UniProtKB/TrEMBL annotation:
Its cofactor is Zn(2+). SUPFAM superfamilies: Winged helix' DNA-binding domain (SSF46785). One of its GO terms (cellular component) is cytosol. Belongs to the Fur family. This is Putative ferric uptake regulator, Fur family. Residues 1-10 have a biased composition (Polar residues). Pfam families: FUR. Zn(2+) binds at C121, C124, C161, C164. Keywords: DNA-binding, Metal-binding, Repressor, Transcription, Transcription regulation, Zinc. Residues 1-22 are annotated as: Disordered. The keyword Repressor applies. GO terms for biological process: negative regulation of DNA-templated transcription; regulation of secondary metabolite biosynthetic process.
Length: 181
């Protein structure tokens, strides 16, 4: 379906450098399809393609990139078709939308009982979904006590990723600019 093997957010990184997403993509898609069927919903071809694209892009895909990538595979796909597929995947808890980046990421968890915590790197736009149940339970309780309710099940925190933290400290270290020996 998707012949390109490059990582969309980081074209220098081939897909196979993200083993948890690329090995087992078909299995993950089959699992998602079975989960939808169990809920009386259907993972149609276009929905499956959108999900596959997101599984293969561990750092997520911006809405307009996603549209462009789907159009490569399906020239006839209209934006509303793709957005409806995304809405479906979000409803089925298979995909999350990161509002601050207008970015879509595949869910890395088997199932969702509670909201998810997303660390969004402001430098490279990398997104990490944390599975800290205790943190999220405590947050939900505090929110409820304050009389507030989460607007969406994605809680986003701006936080530099390890790579960008490393890059920042390398720059600070006595003017070291590169790794030339
Ligand atoms: Zn999730
Ligand atoms: Zn980063």
């Amino acid at each position: 379906m998707f012949t390109t093997k490059t990582n969309l957010m980081n074209p220098s990184l081939p897909d196979d450098q993200c083993p948890q997403f690329t090995t087992g993509t078909t299995e993950a898609l089959d699992r998602a399809e079975a989960a939808c069927r169990a809920r009386g919903a259907s993972l149609t071809a276009i929905r499956r393609e959108v999900l596959e694209l997101l599984y293969r892009s561990p750092t997520g895909v911006k809405a307009y990139d996603l549209l462009a990538r789907i159009k490569e595979a399906r020239p006839g796909a209209s934006p509303p078709t793709v957005y409806r597929a995304l809405d479906f995947l979000i409803e089925q808890c298979l995909v999350h939308k990161i509002e601050r980046m207008n970015l879509f990421v595949a869910c890395r968890q088997a199932s969702h009982q509670i909201p998810s915590l997303f660390l969004v790197c402001p430098k490279c736009s990398g997104v990490t979904e944390l599975q800290e149940q205790s943190v999220m339970s405590a947050l939900s309780t505090s929110l409820a006590e304050a009389g507030h309710r989460l607007e969406s099940p994605e809680v986003e925190i701006s936080a530099l990723c390890p790579k960008c933290v490393g890059a920042a400290s390398a720059q600070c270290a006595d003017g070291e600019g590169g790794a030339l020996g």
